[in-house]
Amino acid sequence: MSIDRRKFLRQTAVAGGVLAASGWLPLGAQASGRVKKLTILHTNDVHSRLDPFPMDGGRNQGLGGVAARAALIQEIRKEGGEVLLLDAGDIFQGTPYFNMYHGEPEIKAMSMMGYDAATIGNHDFDAGLENFAVQLQHANFPILICNYDFTATPMESKFQPYKIFQKGDIKIGVLGLGIELKGLVPENLYGNTVYQDPVAAMNRTADLLRKQGCDMIICLSHLGDKYDDDKLSDEILARESYDVDLIIGGHTHRFFEAPKKYTNRRGGDIVVNQVGWAGIELGRLDYIFSGSGRKNLSNAHTVVIGKKTRE
Fold first, then answer.
1. Domain count, the chain
2. How far apart are CA 286 and CA 64, in angstroms?
């Protein structure tokens, strides 16, 4: 696996500069008590891209592929410290692997890489809701979604609204949000699934997680970064949130140069990040938790996976 080191360092420096300028870096954290570290790795909209893009002279040639991503994840885990690996949906659709196997190799690959959780994207319905439920028998990670009511569907017992992860001394709550399906997905594919207001579902679920003593609350969102109209997006979610610390987004395939920061309803900081599509990049967010209960994003890395960076 080859990573464009110069671009990696440049993006890290840019992100670090933004974080320092906005006060996210931990100043004097060591003096406030025991310091704990957490690395969050994340993907979105991988779209069945199991192999790297072919070396055909195209813009993305040589990029992506689960083998290179798995090697990078393993390398990061060897650094020591606590790691949480998450995905923001659209696991399926985009290569012949999905057409032939309907998602089985995608779910198996994520399980082998040790994903902790994922949410569901609109394209994950493309072979029908029953198919998605069947493919989850190959998953050793949960599907998290708190704004879809799957009552009387094949997914009724195949999902969780949220999950709490204990990573060392750090307690992290993770919830998932899905996009409005009507008009986006054929009705016969999502069946009796009922879409519920994501803002209300997010705040209700995050409140439960806060009351259970979570040190950090993460939302896996497949709503999209932002839009030109008033369509619900991660930007709106962030500003309407009370207790969420981080939104890992998807759907709009945006390659963020650095995480975005918004102010939530309590006047606090909330971070949003997204890493394009097709497994071309792996997001990495390093957090430091101080003994006083403060958490700070100490570094943000956008790691390009493969032999050639995008132009």
1. 1
2. 22
Query: Could you list the residue range(s) of the whole structural domain that residue 58 is in?
Result: 5-304
Please state, in angstroms and rounded to a whole number, the distance separating the CA atoms of residues 143 and 158: 7
Cα 119 versus chain centre, distance: 8
Write out the DSSP string of 136-166. GGG-SS-BB-SSEE-TTSTTTTS-BSEEEEE
Taking the C-alpha atoms of residue 81 and residue 286, their distance in angstroms, rounded to an integer, is: 10
Quick one: average pLDDT of 112-129?
Answer: 98
Share above pLDDT 70 across residues of the chain, in percent, rounded to a whole number: 86
Q: Is residue 309 part of a domain?
A: no
Residue with tokens 């290569």: 95
The answer to whether the Cα torsion of 88, 94, 100, 105 is positive or negative is negative
Q: Is residue 157 part of a domain?
A: yes
Helix (H) or strand (E) holding 40: strand 36-43
Mean pLDDT over 194-211 rounds to: 98
Say how many residues make up the chain.
311
| Nearest CA among 146, 142, 181, 149 for reference residue 165 | 142
CATH number at residue 195: 3.60.21.10
pLDDT tens, position by position, 246-274: 999 999 999 999 999 999 999 999 999 99
In a domain, 271, yes or no: yes
Q: Would 290 be classed as within a structural domain?
A: yes
- Region 9-31 average pLDDT: 34
- Tell me if 306 sits within 8 A of 55, measured CB to CB: no
